[in-house]
Amino acid sequence: MKAVVATDLSAASEATIQSETCLACIGRIGIEEIHLVTVVPSNVHAGMPGIDFEKRRRRGLERYSRVIEDAGFDVESHVVRGTPHRRIRGIAETIGASLTIVGSRGQSPLENRVIGSTARNLARTTVTPLLVNRVEREAEDPEVLREHLFRRMLFATDFSENADRAFDSFSYLRGATKEATLVHVETPKDPGLADDDPEDRLDELAGQLEEWGIETRTDVRQGDPADEILAAEEQYRPTTILVGSRGHSRLRRLLLGSVSEDLVARANGNVMLVPPASV
Questions:
Q1: What three-state secondary structure class fits 269?
Q2: Which among 119, 19, 129 has a CA at the least distance from the CA of 64?
Q3: Any idea where the UspA domain is (predicted)?
């Protein structure tokens, strides 16, 4: 399996790369090859003569590559020019990546505030599973907040086809997952669930995980989906929230897309988004 790791070479975006625990977790789910990607926007030289950003970034990626190679991965580096989220997404598609990883905070005002806005744009458009790795917001030398990326998962489901696809991610995450909390948030207009008991449906999913040796609990809530998922995060303290990036139907696509974007923006820990299958 291959992963794309996007970086703007800021202190925040290098946190995953510098964390031996995070790299071990990535390896534990079957990732063997990591593609480091940094994007130089087309207009980055405007008003900044004499600064070779591409050369500086290549030097930065060389340092990161050594760290990742020492952790046992094959590494390729890409310094590209264009719109960050489009180029990252394009490389992930081209190489057949199983996962894209991006930090949740950028801190390089001179060159490019790539990571904060790019995480949100990728949340809207990614065609591969996306892991948004949360780092400390205020620290000058930030660290990741949840080093064991997949140890304690919170899976939020609306029982849609895309939610089922997100649940299928446990087929490879189980190598690193010890505990899972399965959450469904009931809303006044839950289509297609009138004749189904959500607790029974969660119990069925929990049974699958427990067969894999994952300790599992279930939680059915009522209210606003994003607010309740974040309340469950506060209660259970998972390392990562796992959710499909789309839901029941095209009519609800904007609403459910905004839920995943809310989680990317507001969650305290990591967020993993699984997009719909490519048509």
A1: coil
A2: 19
A3: 2-132, 150-275
Class of domain 152-274: alpha beta
Cα(102)–Cα(246) distance, integer angstroms:
20
Domain ranges across the chain: 2-133, 152-274
- Report angle CA 221, 222, 223 to the nearest 5 degrees: 125
pLDDT digits (tens, 9 = 90+) for 211-232: 999 999 999 999 989 999 999 9
191: left (phi over 0), alpha (psi -120 to 50) or beta: beta
Locate 197 and state its tokens: 């008991």
pTM (2 d.p.): 0.83
208-218 in b/e form (b: 16+ CB < 10 A) is ebeeeebebeb
For residue 112, CA distances in Å to 48, 57, 101, 257 come to 12, 12, 18, 26
Q: Which CATH superfamily is domain 2-133 in?
A: HUPs (3.40.50.620)
For the segment 185-213, what is each residue's pLDDT rounded down to a tens digit?
A: 988 765 555 567 899 999 999 999 999 99
**CA trace torsion 181, 223, 268, 154 (10° rounding):** 10
**Matching fold, domains 2-133 and 152-274:** yes
Query: Quick one: which of 178, 184, 148, 141 has its CA closest to 166?
Result: 184
In a 10 Å sphere around its CB, with 0-12 CB exposed, 13-18 middle and 19+ buried, how is residue 168 labelled?
exposed
Output DSSP code: residue 16: H
Give CA–CA dist 97/3, Å, rounded.
Answer: 5
